[in-house]
Amino acid sequence: MKRKGLMHGADYYPEQWLSRPDILKEDIRLMKLAHINTVTLGVFAWSALEPQEGVWDFTWLDQMMDTLYENHISVILATPSGARPAWLAKAYPEVLRVSEDRKRNLYGMRMNHCYTSPAYRRLVREIDERLAKRYGNHPALKAWHISNEYHGECHCPLCQNAFREFLREKYGTLEALNKAWWTGFWSKTFTDWEQIESPSSRGEMALQGLTLDWKRFVTKQTVDFMRREIETVRAYAPSVPVTTNMIGSFIEVDYPKMAPWLDVAALDCYPQWGGGPDYEIAMDAGFEYDVTRSLKKSPFWLLETTPSLTNWPAVGKPKGPGIHVAGCLQAIAHGSDSVQYFQWRKSRGGYEKFHGAVVGHYGHEHTRVFRETARLGEILENLGEIEGTKTISQTALLYDWNNRWAIEGAKGPRQDKFYEETIREHYRALRRYGVNVDVIDEEQSLEGYRLIAAPMLYLVKEELPQRLMQFVQAGGVLLLTYFSGITDENDLCFQGGFPGPLGELAGVWAEELDLLYPQERGGFCCTGESLPGEGRWSCRDYCEVIHAREADVEACYTSGWYAGMPALTRHRIGKGEVWYLAARAENDFLLLLYGRLLERAGAAYIPGGLPKGVTLCTRCGQKERYLFYTNWNGQPVTVEMPEGEEMLRTGEAKGEQGSMDPLETVILKQKLQ
Ligand code: GLA
Ligand code: ZN
C-alpha cells in the first residue's frame, strides 16, 4: 500500500489467536483506536504456514492481508526464516547450528540456524517464493521484512568448508595467509587448508588474524543468506522495498556490509528508560539511530521498540508516563520514518508473555500504555509531511566494525580498552552543540562533512589515510586520538612507528603509551593559542607519549615522566587541520575541544552548546527544516530557540518563550530560503 506519512504499528502475530476470531476482530477496532497504520506479519510464522513438509496453509494469512487492507492498514510481510518448525529440524538435522565448542544444538529457540546449509537455504527459498508469489502484488503489501535480527555463527563442517573457501579466495596461497596471520609465532604455520578451523575455546583463540577473518566470514555468510532471500522475493515483487531489522551498533554483524542490499535500513531498539527522563539513555538511543541512519544516509525505520517494558533485563521496568511519546519522537528526530512495536497484543503463553505490548492481557483500551500509544499515533499522523525528509550532517564519527573487532580482540596493552565508551563520550560532546552526527565506517564516503572525529582508530584500512588527507586538504577538520594507526587490516602492527599511516596527517609520532590503573589520573593543561589556558584537565586510562613533528602543541601533560610533553596538537594541512588528542581526557574537556573544532571547521552549531539534558536534531525537506527539541531533564528548562512555526509541543504552552517541561518535545518548522 503506497501510503504517505509516518508509519505507526506493531509486530502482529494473529497465528497465536486463530481459534479466537473475536480477538482478531477486536484487534482491528483497537488498531484504529491506536492510530496504527502498518503492521508486520509473518515473523516466525513458518509452522503456521507449513505445518508439515509440503503441506501449506495460507488461508489465515490471505484473510489477514485482505482484512487489514480493507481497514487501511498496510503490511510489512516477513520471511519466516528466523525460526524453523520442529519437523524441519528433525528431517534436516544439518540446519541446526554447531556452537564454537563443536556441539550441535538440539531443536529449540530461534534465530539459530546454519547459514551455509544447502537444505536450509532450499527450504527457505521455497517458502519465501510461495509468499512472494502469493502476496507480492497484494495491495496491502508495503515492504518485505527479511528474516529477523540475523546474527550468530555456526561452526558445523559445512561452515568450516565454506570458511576455508573464503580464505582461499581471499589469500590465494597458504603462504600469503601465513604471512597475514603472522603464523611464524608459536609454531602455527599452516601447510594444508584442511588444518584451518574456526576459532574455538577448545582450540585456536590466539591468532587474531584468524579471528578477524572468521568474523568477516560470518558477516559474509549472513549477508549471502540474506541476499538469497531478497532475490527470491524481488523476483515476484520487484518494486516492493526490502528491509531487515538490524540491532543498531550490535557488534556481531558488520552492518555497513549488509546495508547496500537493502532498500531501507531498519533497527530494533529497546532503550532501558526506567521510570523517568534520562539524558544518558536518550544519548545511547540516539547513537543507535544515527548508526542505522548513516548506513544509507537516508531515513530509516524503527521496526521494534516496546510500548512499555522489556522482559529480558534484570528488572523490566515499564516506561513511566510521557517517556513513550518522547522516546519514540526521538527516533523520528534522528531520521526514522516509522515507530513499530514488538508486539501488538501480549501472548498468553511462551517466552515473551510478560514483554510489553500495545494491548495487554486485560484486552481493552482503557490502560495508560494504550492511551500513550494512541496519543503518539495521533501525533505521528499529524507529522506526515516529515516522512522522507533527510538528516544532513556536517559532522561524522568514524566507527568501524573491523576496528571494533580488532581492538576488542587484541591481547593488551590493557584488557579493558574502553573503545565503545570512548566513542559515546565523543558522540555526547558533539551532540551538546545541537549538531546532527553521522556514524560511519572506514569505507563510507566522507563527502559533505566539515568535521570528522576518529577516536581510537586502531585498525586502519588501506585507502583511508589518503581519503582523510583529501578531506583535510579541502578544508576539513579531523580529530585523531591515542591508540590510533596501530595495525593494518590483518591486525599486523605498522612498522616505523605509530600512528603508522596516520602520522603524516597528525604531524606527530607516538613513542610510548602509558596505561593508567583504574583509579589513577593524569593531567594536562592548554598551552597553545587555540584553547583557554586556565585550568588543569584530568585524563585517565591512556596517556600517549607523543612528539610533535610538524604539528603545533596545544596542550601539555602536567603528570608522569612525560610532563611538559604534548597532550594535544594541531597540524595545519592545506585548508584544513588535524588535531591529535594523546590522552583519554575528561568529558568537560571534550566539550571544550569540540566547541573549538566545530568553529574551526566552519560547521553550523550552537556556540556555548545546548542546556544540559536537552537534545536537538534537524531534518530537512525540499522547502522546510524541522527542528526537534526534547528536554530529558527531570525539571523544566529554558531553551533558546530560533524563529519558526511551532508544529508540535507535547507539553502545555506556557506563554514563556522556550520553557520546556520534563520529557516535552517541541518541533519547529522553518522555511528554507
Ligand atoms: C527482538 C526480537 C523480537 C522480540 C524482542 C523482544 O527484538 O526481534 O521478536 O523478541 O526482541 O524485546
Ligand atoms: Zn553451519
Automatic annotation (TrEMBL):
SUPFAM superfamilies per record: (Trans)glycosidases, Class I glutamine amidotransferase-like
GO CC annotations on file: beta-galactosidase complex
CDD domains: A4_beta-galactosidase_middle_domain (cd03143)
Name of the molecule in the record: Beta-galactosidase
Keyword Zinc on entry: yes
Residues annotated as domain Beta-galactosidase trimerisation: 394-602
EC number from the UniProt entry: 3.2.1.23
Domain Glycoside hydrolase family 42 N-terminal positions: 11-382
Keyword list, A-Z: Glycosidase, Hydrolase, Metal-binding, Zinc
Entry keyword Metal-binding: yes
Gene Ontology molecular function: any one: beta-galactosidase activity
Matching Gene3D superfamilies: 3.40.50.880, Glycosidases, Golgi alpha-mannosidase II
One Pfam family matching this protein: Glyco_hydro_42M
Active-site residues, as the UniProt record annotates them: E149, E304
Residues annotated as binding substrate: R110, N148, W312
EC primary class: hydrolase
Family, similarity comment: Belongs to the glycosyl hydrolase 42 family.
Catalytic reactions on record: Hydrolysis of terminal non-reducing beta-D-galactose residues in beta-D-galactosides
Domain named Beta-galactosidase C-terminal: residues: 613-669
Origin: domain of life: Bacteria
Species of provenance: Candidatus Acetatifactor stercoripullorum
Residue sites binding Zn(2+) per the record: C114, C154, C156, C159
Gene Ontology process terms (BP): galactose metabolic process
